[in-house]
Amino acid sequence: MNVLLPLPFALPLLGAALAMISRRRRFWLRVLAPLVGAGAVAASVAVLVAVARNGVVAVQAGGWAAPLGITLVADRLSALLLVVSSTVLLAIMLHAVAEGAGALDRRSEPGVFHPAYLALTGGVGLVFLAGDLFNLFVAFEVMLASSYVLMTLQPTAERLRASMTYTVVSLTSSIMFLTALGLTYAAAGTVNLADLSERVPALPAGTRTALGLLFLVVFGIKGAIVPMHLWLPDAYPAALTKVTAVFAALLTKAAVYALIRVETLAFPREHGSRVMLVLAAGTMVVGTLGALANDDIHRVFSFTLVGHIGYMLFGLALFSVAGLTGAILYLVHHIVVQATLFLVSDLIQARTGETSLHRLGGLARLSALIAVLFFVPAMSVSGVPPTSGFVAKLALFQAGLGSGRPLAYAVTGVAVLASLLTLMAMARIWALGFWRPRPEEAGEPPAAEPYTRGGVRVMQAVTAVMVAGGLLIAVFAGPLSSWSARAAADLVDPSAYRRAVLDGRAP
C-alpha cells in the first residue's frame, strides 16, 4: 500500500518530466502520454479495489506519523473519483493524440501540450488523495500551473485576454486558500484533515464559522459558485476545445470535492447550511439562464457547467447521507457528460468550423453520427429518464424532499426548474444546429475536416466511448448508488477515516 497509493499522481508527474525532456519527438509523445494515462487508470482501479477490500487506506509518506508527516488517504469517495477522473483524462488524451496525429497542419500540435496535460493529471490525482490542507493546496497549484500553460496554447488575442483573467482569479483564490490554511493552523495547531476533525469542535463557534465561510469562498471561486463564477464563461470557451473539455470536466469538480472534504471533515453542520442552500439555488438559476441567453455552443456548455455546480452544492448543503449520496452521483455523472459534450463540440467544429448557433445548421444531415453523439449526453445533462443525469437528480430531489426543511423544499423546486431550463438550452442547440437548414450567410461548410480520415474516426470512436460511458453510469446505477451511499455515510461519520490516519499518531 505504501507504493500503490502515490501511483495515481506520481506516474503522471514522472511522465510529465519525461515528456518535457522529449517534447520535440512527437511520435514518442503520442505513445508515452496514453501509456502513462493508462497506467494512472490501472493504479486508480487498484486503489479502488484496495478500498473495497480494506476500507479507508492511508499512507504516511517518509515514515513521519500523522499529523506531522505528509498523509495520503483513499476512501470510497476519493477512490471512486480517482477512477472516473483518470478514465476521462485518458479518453481526452486519446482524443487529443488522434487530433494531433491526424492534423493536416502539423503546427496545430504544440509539443508542450503533453507534459502540461500529464502534470495536470498528476495534480488532479493528488487532490483526491491529499490528507491534509497543505498538500491539498500543493495539488491545486500543480493543477493550476499546468492549466495556465494549456490555456495559452496556440495563442490568440482573445485567448491571451481570457487566460489573464483566469490566471488572476486563480492566483487570488490561491492566496485566499493559503490565508485560510494559515489561519486554520493558528487556531487549531494542525492542518491534517483527520486531526482537524477532532480539534475544530473545541474552537469557539465564531472561529469555526469564519473559517468554514473562508473555505467556502476559496472553493467557491475555484468551483465557479454564483456569484463567484464570472470568470468561467469567458475563460473556458477561449481555450482549445480539447483543453476546455478537461477543464470543464475536472477543475471545477476538484474544487467541489475539496469543499465536500473540508466541510464534512473539519466544519460539519448538524442541520445543513442555509448559506449553501441559497448559493446552490442561485448557481442553478444564473447558470441555466446564462446558457439560454448565449449563442456560442461553448458558452452555452460553460454556463450549463456553472448551473450544474449548484446541484452538487445542494447535496452538500443538506449535510445528510441522502444529500451527499446525490452529490457524489452528480459528480460522477457530470465529469463524464460535460467532457463528452465538449468532445462532441470539437467534432462539430472540425466538420463545420463553427460554434455559433447563428451560423450553424443542417448538422443532422451533414453527420448523423455527430447528431447521435450530441443527443445522448444532452439528454443526460438535462436529466431526462433513464439517463445518468436523471439518476443523480432523482437522488438529490429525494434528499431535498426528505430533509423536512422548507428551504430545502424550495431549492428542490429550483432544481426542477433548472432542469427544465437546461433541457430548453439543449433543445435550442438541437433545433438550430442540427435540424434548421444552414443559414445562407454562413456559406457552405468546409469540404473536408482539417484532419485525416483516420484521425477523425479515432476522435469519433473516443467520443462514442465517452457517450457509452455515460450510459453505463445509468445501467449500473444500482451498484453505483450503493457505493455512493456508503461513501456518503463515511463522510457523515468520519471515525473510520480518523482511525486510518491517526492510529499510531505522533506524540
UniProtKB/TrEMBL annotation:
Keywords: Cell membrane, Membrane, Transmembrane, Transmembrane helix
Domain of life: Bacteria
GO molecular function, one term: NADH dehydrogenase (ubiquinone) activity
Cell compartments where the protein resides: Cell membrane; Membrane
One GO cellular component term: plasma membrane
One Gene Ontology biological process: ATP synthesis coupled electron transport
NADH:quinone oxidoreductase/Mrp antiporter transmembrane domain boundaries: 130-411
Membrane topology of the entry: Multi-pass membrane protein
Family affiliation: Belongs to the CPA3 antiporters (TC 2.A.63) subunit D family.
Protein name: Multicomponent Na+:H+ antiporter subunit D
Higher taxonomy: Bacteria, Bacillati, Actinomycetota, Actinomycetes, Streptosporangiales
